[in-house]
Design a protein that fits this description.
heterodimer; A: alpha/beta; Glutaredoxin; 2 domains; two-stranded antiparallel ribbon; 6 helices; 7 strands; elongated; B: alpha+beta; 6-stranded antiparallel sheet; 4-stranded antiparallel sheet; 21 helices; 12% strand; globular; disordered C terminus
Chain lengths: 183, 651
Amino acid sequence: MTLRRHLLYAAPLAIAGIAGVSFLAMLRRMKTGAFDPHDIGSPMDGKPIPNFTLPAPGGGKGFSTADVLALHRPVLINFFASWCAPCIDEAPNLVALAPQIPIWGVAYQDQAPDTERFLAQFGNPYQRLGADHDGYTAINFGLYGVPETYLIDPTGIIRARYAGALTGDIISGSLMPLVRGMS
Amino acid sequence: MIPELGHYALALATVIAFAQCFLPIWGAHRRDARLMAAAGPLAVAQLLALAVSCFALVYSSVVSDFSVTNVYENSASTKPLIYKITGAWGNHEGSILLWALILGLCGVAVTLRGGGLPSSLRARVLGVLGGTSAGFMLYAVLLSNPLLRTWPAPTEGQGMNPLLQDPGLAVHPPILYLGYVGFAVPFAFAVAALLEGRIDAAWGRWVRPWALLSWCFLTCGIALGSWWAYYELGWGGYWFWDPVENASLLPWLTGTALVHSAIVVEKREALKIWTVLLAIGTFSLSLSGTFLVRSGILNSVHSFANDPDRGVFILGLLAIVIGGSLALFAWRAPKLAEGGLFAPLSREGALVLNNLFLVSICTVVLIGTMYPPFADLLFGAKISVGAPFFQATVLPLVVPLIAAMTIGPVLPWKRAQLAPALQRLWWVALIALAVGAFAAIGWKLLPGIAFGGAAWLIVGSLAEIAERIKLFRLPFRQSVARLGGISPAVWGSAVAHAGFGVTVAGIAAMSLATSVIVSVPVGSVEHVAGYDWKLVSLETLPGPNYISRQATIDVSRNGKLVTIMRPARHSFTSQQITTTDTAIHTMIYADLYAVLGDESGGNAVLRLHYNSGAPLIWLGGLIMALGGVASLLDRRLRVGAPARRAVAVTA
């Protein structure tokens, strides 16, 4: 009984200890670059887009790998969600970008009515729209979070990935030069 | 010369803080009255030295002394005076100094108000506070010194992050820090009690005003932060479940639990060990929240300069403060005697239930916040946890919490029966159900439930007051006369619970807000939420250190002009940064909210929101804090605990 009592009272210390050791490991790896919450790497860079077929948010046909390949043009695949605050920030930039390059949207783990309301409120820059309800397509893309944007070249190879909101600087400084280099 | 003086004073304060830590605790152990009595004067001396140091930093910033690295990096001569002053704590180094200054203030406050404390307890409390200060100031002196020089001295500074150039953010950190750091006092009391090996009702009475005061500041701080995100970020949202926001919510949740469990200690001498753990936990969460955000382990939309080296030092500091106190807890707490038995259905039982829900919510939010870095560390997986997780997990816990919040205060201590309590509350429940059903039919189910909950809280609080004055059972005049007889503690709980109800109503209404995004030329009219928004003009205006592009929008309803809104974008000249200046027209029950976006081809992108209920969210926070202050007044009448400062601040 007393041993149990002592164990119980030591539990907070043990939890704090485990957390502390983990934080130390994170800090160490941050120094060597092995752990960086901001840099998320790009394992899919230079690889063909994964195979997927997505329904539209409200049901019906969304788009699939074959549709992307049939386009024979550079295209942006943008993962977004109505529950994601940075996506709201990104929305006007995408609306402004839409005339220059086709943008295909993937609503990531989102309810169809929420997606519709989001697009109605903040603008719809998407030529085609798919819904990734279970998040499997996102996993195949190696999605870090939303918003996230992939630049696909005319042959269906992923040329760049932008995690987080696309800003004017990223669009003019990195994205558009890459797009121009393709055509 | 002034920065050197400040640098010197900071080093001196650090040494004094170490003395304030060791001498009184050693004295209390040896029962040496002289050593114990040294605690007070040392606390005052530490605060004086720190004040000199802070003055030096603010002075250097005001006179734009760019030879001071910190001023060079965060200021510019073109910056308005007010932001030169407030900018002194708007950066990492300055904020640590502010943190230490507030901790020093807490020490002096305990010295001044703690005359009635037993000398050994007082010495130990001040010793623990001194030790915590010492750690932070050592960090400031060694790794994060705001008063270091750079040579050769630059002629112009790099300027301040324009997002921080905002009146809301000038007062936000001090208030939030008063909340965070204020919990150091209950923490010190908890550690001192563990050192003493004794906790009684008096301990609960001493701790509670400090916990309440810090809770009031933290409540205001979180509300201000949320309000700042609302009007400055211009996204129209008020809470994003961002790690920085969660870091302030976690200690608020455990702090709320602490404020309630301390009542049980005071009134019934029960829940003592639990309360000690809550006091330690609340301050630990305050500390680690700051650490996690500042070290860059948590990925946030609010970016801070990250430095893993500093992180290691702070982690070591946390290990000593948190690990030390929890080790002491593991060692001493089992020996503390528990007392005060009570039936599950009683006032105590309701408070335990409240604690369980609050701590459960805290755990859920903590897991959601910490899962991404831990998943990365353990499985190498990159994951982000967003609002759907928090909404799905927190909401089911908030509903029973709200249900219990109104029932708890009507239950008697020790042992209660449910029937009489429900008998008193049936008409409240009826009103809440009616409001909920009405709202659910009119709009949607979830907001309906929330509106019902809000009514349950607000009407329940009114019912509590009505019950106390025997409204309708005595002649009306006598009932009114009884209003003055209600103790401030009862007012406090009624007001705070109603305040939470107001916030819940605001959140519910906000979920029904409408908005549009449009690209329109000058002269066009948009119809949103029954209002006509006419873009009258677009013009370019010069600002003190930015160039501003401003839209003028006439908002009218049924042909009558309601307000003229002027949203703008500021382009800062010294940095390549543009910020949005949201235009907000508040009508208490709703906000009209306009944001100016980019322009192209003569069209301007406008975002127009009708945010129903938005002001209620922060108004509710303010009412909650007022309830806390009312409760504080009660302590002053009975035991002379600190209340004067709280009143002065809220006035």
